[in-house]
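Suppose you are handed only these lines of text.
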Amino acid sequence: MILYRFFRPLVFLFTPEFDHHLVGFFLSLIHRSRLLTKLTCKLFKVSSAQNVEIARINFPNRIGMAAGFDKNGTFYNGIAALGAGFVEVGSVTLTAQPGNAKPRVKRLVEDEAIINHMGLNNVGVEKAQKNLSKVQSIVPIGINIAPNHGLTTKEMIQQMTKSAEALESEGDFLVLNLSCPNQDGVKSLQDAGIISQLLDEIEAKKPIFLKFSSDLPDEKLLESIAKNIERISGVVMSNTTTTRENLKSKNQKFVGGLSGKPLFNKTLKQVKLVRQKFPEDLAVIHSGGIFTVRDVKESLAAGADLVEIYTSLIYQGPTIFKEIQKKTA
Ligand SMILES: Cc1cc2nc3c(=O)[nH]c(=O)nc-3n(C[C@H](O)[C@H](O)[C@H](O)COP(=O)(O)O)c2cc1C
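From them, the structure of the protein bound to flavin mononucleotide can be written out as follows.
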C-alpha cells in the first residue's frame, strides 16, 4: 500500500478508463496462465485459512471484488490471486452494448470517491459465457446480470431470465442487478412485485442474490426483500448513489453513480436495518465505501456475511485484499 501511494499520482495522470484497461490487461495475463496465477498467489501469500460457508458456498475469505471491475469474465483469477475471496463478474446483459459516451468515469480524489456513468458496457452473454468457460476459477464467482438498454419491464424480465439460464452454470451464484443508476428503467426492477415476476421466471438452481440501490428508501427495501425472501439466498447492498452530500471535489458535478468512501455510512445503515429485520439465513453482502480493516469489522459486526470492494482498490492499490484479510483474521 505504501509503494502504491508513491506511484498513485503517476497512475492518476491517466484517465480512469485507461488505467482500468491497463490493469485489466496485466490481470488477464495472470488469469490465463496457471503458473502466473500460482506465482501471484504466492507473492500475495494467498491462503484459504479463513474459509467460511455462506449460502451453501465455500468462500476462502469474506472480502470479494464488486461487480463492474471484471465486466466480461476475462481476469477474475488475476483478482483472486491478489487475495479476493470471490469475484462478481458483470454486469452482463443479454446482448453486447457499448455503454454511454466517454468520458464516463471521474475520480473525486479529495473524497476518495468515483462517479461513473458507464451504462453497462459489456460483451454480452454469449461472449461472457465463452470467457467464463475457458478458465476454471480459483474462488467462487458471482454472475451479475442486468437487462439491455431501452426495454419495457416485460422485456427486461424476459432478458434477465434468458441470461440467468445461459450463465448460471458458469458461476457459483447469480446476482440480479436491479439498481444501475446509469441506464433508464433498471431501478424500476426493485419494486417488490416486479422482483416476484422476475423470480417466477428464473428457474436457477444456484443461489440468487438481489443487488439494491443505496438510494432505495428503507421501507421499499424491506418490502422487496420480505415479499421475496423465500426465493432468494441473499442481497447485495448496495449500488452507487446519485445523491451528492458533503463532497469536496469539483468533479461532484459529474453525472452518474457515486461510489467510494462517502457511501460507507449509508450502506452500513442498510446492512444494519436488513440484518435486524430478517433471519440469519438471508446472506448479506455489503458493498459501498469499504476501505479499511475498521470498515470491514464494522460491517461484519452490523451483520454482513461478506463484503465487496471496488473504489478502495483504486485508491489503495492491489495489496488491499491481503492487508484487510491479515488484520481481520
Ligand atoms: C466504474 C464502475 C463500474 C461499475 N459497474 C457496475 C456494474 O456493471 N454492475 C454493478 O452491479 N455494479 C457496478 N458498479 C458498482 C460496484 O459494484 C459497487 O457496488 C459500488 O461501486 C460501491 O462499492 P465501492 O464504494 O466499494 O466502489 C460499478 C462501480 C464502478 C465504480
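What can we learn from it? The chain is about 40% helix and 20% strand. The longest strand covers residues 87-92.
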